[in-house]
Structure formats: structure tokens, C-alpha cells
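Changelog-linked ticket: MTE example.
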Amino acid sequence: MDGPASTKSASRRSFLKGALTGGAAIAASTALVGRAGAQSDPLVTDIQDWNRYLGEGVDARPYGTPSQFEEHVVRRNVAWLTSDPISSVNFTPLHELEGIITPNGLCFERHHAGIAEIAPADHRLMINGLVDQPLIFTMDDLKRFPRENKVYFLECAANSGMEWRGAQLNGCQYTHGMVHCVMYTGVSLRTILEEAGVKANGSWLLAEGADASAMTRSIPMEKALDDCMVAFAMNGEALRPEQGYPLRLVVPGWEGNMWVKWLRRLEVGDQPWHHREETSKYTDLLSNGKARRFTWVMEVKSVITNPSPQAPIKHGRGHTVLSGLAWSGNGTIKRVDVTTDGGRNWHQARIDGPSLPMALHRFYYEFDWDGSELFLQSRAIDDKGFVQPTKDELRTARGPNSIYHNNGIQTWHVDSDGVIENVEIS
Ligand SMILES: Nc1nc2c(c(=O)[nH]1)N[C@H]1C(S)=C(S)[C@@H](COP(=O)(O)O)O[C@H]1N2
Ligand SMILES: [Mo]
């Protein structure tokens, strides 16, 4: 790397320290990462096409899409996974995203029978079972109830599932990309249930989707009345078909498979309907052959999204921004620690942006890379005091046969060229 940014890392380190504590003014003469000699750069001195010709008018892009230069920022799937029963899944490109909100077109998708295409005028939500009055709502009916706006993450219980036995997939998109976080608009489930009147013995709720899988999930009434929603919008616009248009269930902090898409029926009962569900698919098998059931909360977890295998360090040594995501189904993230040397030294990361319960949190750690090999890890702690475990701790607790609910600490190995690989260290 050329320019002043690559010289004298020691003095730059002290500059950085000053900058971060508000003392930037004193070091105005040494640019942090800028370059000298910009006057000889043709991109600065010459007239460019975008400067010379008129651009497209306001009628050219009635629904905007990202820049042509961002074409690589897409959901991706893993070919060898698709013949498996846990098929029909693609992954959020976490390493390309900023902040805490996932753009609608990049939210990972997981379907059991593909995307149902439903005209909102033809959609109905029915409530039956142990209620005073069974009811049917149209979408227009639902939009006459008071609304709420809430930001939540949704994580599939199978996220990081391929990583149980060891490092597998090379990129946080694949190891951690079955998570997204959007602002939902909808009606609280409590409002809908109160409209129908839940009978005293109504302790469970069955939620059913209108897609060809007719997916159903049992949800304890306590959770249903607490913070669940029936949502019709995400990030300010109607739900995307992939995410359950026109209506989906939102079950904050709990595993993704309960968030029934294309929601068409809610049945109140006095016991769970587990015999009708594919519980085996979402049950953690312990080494003694017993199943770990009723594990609905997605526990505290984090991952460094940059640098990472799909986002290597290309700028060489010097000022480096480490960035990542942390979340907990139990509440907010109180703290994230990061290490660059495989856990010998931990540093408290800076959480930036909103800290909302059961939503993604964005963290940063700025450091001066000396070009030596690194082992990057992050470890999140939530506001209930839960600490993200190591993968070894998880395996000791649950044995090697688990797939679901892997919230273990992820390690990225950075070599001296800045190339990054998914590894495990112990
Ligand atoms: N009706 C219906 N709802 C569904 C599913 C489905 O296949 N059909 N998949 C579930 C699973 S396993 C997950 S992880 C989430 C994924 O939500 P997303 O596609 O919006 O990311 O939806 C859940 N809701
Ligand atoms: Mo899932």
C-alpha cells in the first residue's frame, strides 16, 4: 500500500487513540487513510462520462433498485444443501450490509413448499377453537385495528447448523445468513385474540399458513398474548411474497419456523398440536438419544461480518474497521467483546445504532493491523446476563448430534495477505 496511511504505525496508533477520544484536531496534518497527491489522479483531474452526459429521468426507475455496481450483493444458496430435507433456503449477504436493518430484497428465504402468491383481496385470517366467537378477517378488516411498528430479528433454528461438527462453509453469509432484521407493521396478536375472546382453558395457539406446505406451529398462549404480531408490512412497504405476503406471524426472539408466513388460521386449543408438526426437524438430538424440546428462544449470538471470508482485508496493514452483528432472543445486547488473537486479549467493541430488544445490534472495533496473522472472534452478552458460549462448550453440553440452535463463537483466520478462512481453534 502506498501513501502516508502505510507509514509509521506507532504514531498512527497514537493518533487514532486521540481521534477516538475527540482529539482529532491536533493531528490534522497526518491523514488517517486518505492519500497525498490526489491532483495527479485522472479520476480527480479528468472529466468523466457521468459528468459529461445527462442521466436518466425520474420516469426511468418507478421502483428503484440498487446500483449496477452492487449486483454481487444478493441472497445466495448452497447447491449441495438443496437435495437435503432442509432445502429451499438462501442466505442473507451479511458481509455486505450496514446498520441493523436488512433490506427487503436481501432477507434470507426459507420455504417448505415455495412462495405462495396470494392476492390480498383473496386472503382471509380465521380464528377458531376455544374462543367465544370464531371470526374471519379480510386484510381490510385487519387494517382497521390499531397498529404497531417493531424492529425484530428472525433467525432460523438451523442457522449455523452446518457448523456443529467443525468449520464448514467459507463465509458469514452461509454460516450465519439465516437471520434478518426488519421493522414490522401490523396488529398485536393480543388485539386479534381479544376480539374473538379466548376461553379460560385456551392455553395454546395453532398458527397455519396458506402455502402448499400448510405449515402449522403451536405457540403457548402466554407468548401469543405477550408480544406476537400479525404483520402486513416490513420496512415500510407491504411484506414481500417471499416473506409471507400478505400476512405473517411475528414471534419476537423465537425460532423462525414459528413465524408462520401467509398466515390464514389461528386455532385456540388446550394443548400443543405437536403430533401435526415436523418437530423432529427442529429438535436437538442429545447424545443419550433424548430430544431437547421446547427450545424456542434464539439465544445470545454474534458474528464478525467484516473482515470475513467473503470480505478479506484488501487495504493491507494499518487502520482497519472490524464490524459485526449481535442479537439475543432474550432482550438487548449489553456488550460485545472482540479478540484478534484467538481469545488471548479481549476488547470491548463499540455498539452503534439503536439497541432494541430482540433486534440485531451493530458493533465495531477499530484497530491497527500490523500484517500478522489474526484469529478474529466476537462474544456477545445480553441484558439478561447470558454469555455467548464457545462451540466446544456447546458440544460438551449437547453432544455432537445437534444441528439446531448453534450460537457458538465463530472464528475467522486472517493470513498475512488478508485472506480469511472459517476455522476452529481450541
Ligand atoms: N407458511 C410457512 N411459514 C413459514 C415457513 C414455510 O415454509 N411456510 N418456513 C418457516 C421457517 S423454517 C423459517 S426459518 C421462516 C423464514 O422466514 P423468511 O423466509 O421470511 O426468512 O419462516 C417460517 N414460516
Ligand atoms: Mo427455519
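Closing comment: Example verified and attached. Residues 301-423 form a domain with the Immunoglobulin-like fold (CATH 2.60.40.650). The chain is about 10% helix and 25% strand.
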